[in-house]
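Q: I'm writing up a methods section and want to include an example of the input and output format. Could you take the sequence below and give the corresponding predicted structure tokens, formatted cleanly so I can copy it straight into the document?
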Amino acid sequence: MYLHLKKLFPETENLEILKHQQVTKLDLLNALNFLVDEIKTSKKEEQPKKWLKSSEVKSLLRISPGTLQNLRINGTLTYTKIGGIIFYSYEEILKVMEQNKVKATSNE
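A: Here is the clean output for your methods example:
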């Protein structure tokens, strides 16, 4: 991540002056707060999309187009069709995965 001095020190018009100034504890605290905000913002951007297209679901579940079609036909995965594009709810996919979880058995 590249930090822009203007973002860190918006009150400074001439950035050349910064090269000749001492760094204070307040400056370090401002920089730290800025970095924390940037990290929080980037974390929010990493959240999965609410709706996924067929190609994204196939990649996510590592299944073939036929398997995805079977999951639609037998009602395992609900979907929304707009025009010719089929969308799947990410939350619904997680719910189906939880509902179909198989408990491990011990071989004792």
